[in-house]
Amino acid sequence: DTAVQLSATDNICGIAKTFYSIDESKFTEGTSFKISEEGNHKVSFYSIDNAGNVEEIKNVEVKVDNTPPTTTSNVTDGSVELTATDNLSGVDKTFYSIDGSKFTEGTNFTVSEEGNHKVSFYSIDKAGNKEEIKTVEVKVDKTPPATTSNVNDGWYKENVAVKLEATDNLSGVDKTFYSIDGSSFTEGTSFTISEEGIHKVSFYSVDKAGNKEEIKTVEVKIDKTPPTTTSNVIDSWYKENVAVQL
């Protein structure tokens, strides 16, 4: 409620009565009253002295705002933008705090340190109404995932079942992609290579924050065919020592 106090003076015969009207209502005798309804109100008033002189009606505007502002947040890649609205007196100031720090005035700031952060904020309107503190979580992850494979640096004599394993300590792994011998990247973490030869397997992962790992490449070497050995021995009898060459 907004308390209105009227004070009248008369230096000669003194004040007899004071009257007021709210929003063109009927004039009522009195010098103090309250206006509870929000909005802009027209208050009219005048006084009469003991000699019967009637003052000209005066008008003032009484603006009542009992509702605090509403503040919302928008978080993009660690950058925080606060937007406050107030339909009556208007927003005066906005304050924020990061991880329990002292509140600072402002609507735009950046949370740069990796990890989960608690951002608290509120606004005050021009009527002095203070919003209840709101809190959001700002999760910052600047580090891409790390992907490893089970491929050994050696030759395989059978089909090779390749398995990729990705880890991310903050936002977590979203997707893993692989390419065989320069083919288009395909999402997946396990596949089999059966064709003989030296194959180039490239792979990377993306975390839930959108960080993309640099492409890694390993060689998968497969040889399923045994060697072929020949000798210089002929199908005949030798009368001397035989020097065999393989």
Kindly describe this structure:
The protein has 246 residues and is mostly beta strands. Helices cover 0% and strands 52% of the residues. The chain has no helices and 21 strands. A hairpin with a 2-residue loop joins strand 7 (70-76) and strand 8.
Please give the count of helices: 0
Query: Helix/strand-derived class?
Result: mainly beta
Mean pLDDT: 97
β-sheet strand percentage: over 45%
- Principal-axis shape equals rod-shaped
The N- and C-terminal alpha carbons lie at a distance of 109 Å
> Poorly predicted ranges (pLDDT <50, ≥5 residues)?
none
- CA radius of gyration: 42 Å
Question: What proportion of the residues is helical, as a percent range?
Answer: under 10%
Series of H and E elements: EEEEEEEEEEEEEEEEEEEEE
The strand line-up of the biggest sheet is: 15-21-20-17-18
Report the biggest beta sheet as strand number plus sense, adding barrel if it closes. 5 strands, mixed
Offer a few descriptive terms:
246 residues, mainly beta, 4-stranded antiparallel sheet, rod-shaped
Helix and strand arrangement:
Elements: E1 2-5, E2 15-22, E3 28-29, E4 32-35, E5 39-49, E6 58-64, E7 70-76, E8 79-85, E9 91-98, E10 104-105, E11 108-110, E12 115-125, E13 134-140, E14 146-149, E15 155-156, E16 160-167, E17 173-180, E18 186-187, E19 190-193, E20 197-207, E21 216-222
State the gist of this model:
With 246 residues, the protein is mainly β.
